[in-house]
Amino acid sequence: MSLRNVLAIPSSAVTDETVYRGRRRLLGALATSTLLPLAGCADAEVPPSKTVVTPEQAKSGFRTDEALTRLEDVTGYNNFYEFGTDKADPARAKKTLRTSPWNIAVSGECAKPGNLSFEDLLKGLAPEERIYRLRCVEGWSMVIPWLGVPLADVLRRFEPTSKAKYVAFTTLADPAQMPGLRFRSIDWPYREGLRIDEAMHPLAFLATGLYGKPLPQQNGAPLRLVVPWKYGFKSIKSIVEIRFTEKQPKTAWHQLQPKEYGFYSNVNPEVDHPRWSQKTERRIAGTGNRLFADRIPTQKFNGYGEQVAGLYAGMDLEKWY
Ligand SMILES: Nc1nc2c(c(=O)[nH]1)N[C@H]1C(S)=C(S)[C@@H](COP(=O)(O)O)O[C@H]1N2
Ligand SMILES: [Mo]
């Protein structure tokens, strides 16, 4: 079974429409101001902890019985600012984003850097299914059946050295394919990063498909990160570069508004966003005719605490938000 050609899973569940535009408002405000806050406050480094999770514990996080978000909502209500800031804009990526051929450059603190095709990057790895909750920092969430491979299996191929304390990821930034790059909403290219132990955690995933099919463009084809215990913006789309670094990499949302978007950005109902509460979320799933179901409580680490809390032992999560 190839990664671009996979099993089909029945869809279920629901919905309709309203929009949560917190960050669009922020971007509007920033566009009219001349100075963007680029200070790096929470940038100091924390020594990586040891991953403490058994294979059984890890597996119990690989799927959930919660109602899946409908395919049309997973592919019609998106954040992919390279294609515009409206939730409906990314669906238009189909027309312009060319996902084959696709190359990924791997560099930095590793013994075997290289520039690989999508196919070579994933050669020999069998696609797995993961049914994960995705919690956007804006306060909505989905349940998505992904296909892909554990991020660790891919990273290990490059033999990261002991200096590789972090992994940085970069999205394609091609104005010819991405009309949203005209708007200087964030400092392109979109960049994200993880601490190396987070990246090697069995729940960290590189998705190449969803609902049994290759990844649609709007969801970050051909290859995107999925880090289910962190706010959705950490799950960077359409990756063209992976870099092992010794220092915490600069990440796009954190650079844009460091007080609002931390490097860690673990889902945490106990730490509110400066402009809204994070205690609850609107799940886009269910059996009604509204896009959003009723609010449900947000869980710490998005419900994956049993698997990932050990990564943050001893860290003050209000400071390291
Ligand atoms: N390159 C890139 N990656 C991105 C984004 C983006 O704008 N550009 N948006 C992020 C945000 S805020 C969320 S919530 C998720 C949404 O993923 P989905 O549209 O597949 O549900 O993608 C994340 N990855
Ligand atoms: Mo998000």
Descriptive labels:
321 residues; alpha+beta; Sulfite Oxidase, Chain A, domain 2; 7-stranded mixed beta sheet; 5-stranded mixed beta sheet; 15% helix; 20% strand; disordered N terminus; binds ligand MTE; binds molybdenum atom; oxidoreductase; EC 1.8.5.-
Distance between the termini: 40 Å
User: How many individual helices?
Assistant: 9
Radius of gyration: 18 Å
Can you count the beta strands? 12
Tally of individual domains? 1
Query: What structural category arises from helix and sheet content?
Result: alpha+beta
Q: How confident overall, as mean pLDDT?
A: 87
The ligands bound in this entry are: ligand MTE, molybdenum atom
- The proportion of residues in beta strands is 15-25%
CATH class wording:
Alpha Beta
- Could you state the order of secondary-structure elements as H and E? HHHHEEHEEHEEHEEEEHEEH
User: How is the quaternary structure best described?
Assistant: single chain
Overall shape: it is globular
Tell me which CATH architecture applies here. Answer: Alpha-Beta Complex
EC number: 1.8.5.-
Pfam family, one: Oxidored_molyb
GO molecular function: metal ion binding; molybdopterin cofactor binding; oxidoreductase activity, acting on a sulfur group of donors, quinone or similar compound as acceptor
Cofactor: Mo-molybdopterin
Topology at a glance:
Blueprint (H helix, E strand, L loop, with lengths): L21 H11 L22 H6 L10 H4 L18 H4 L6 E6 L5 E4 H5 L5 E8 L4 E11 H6 L9 E6 L19 E5 H4 L5 E6 L2 E2 L9 E3 L12 E7 L6 H5 L23 E4 L11 E3 L7 H4 L13
Parallel strand pairs: 1-10, 4-11
Antiparallel strand pairs: 1-2, 3-4, 4-7, 5-6, 5-10, 7-8, 7-9, 11-12
The structure holds the ligand Nc1nc2c(c(=O)[nH]1)N[C@H]1C(S)=C(S)[C@@H](COP(=O)(O)O)O[C@H]1N2 and molybdenum atom.
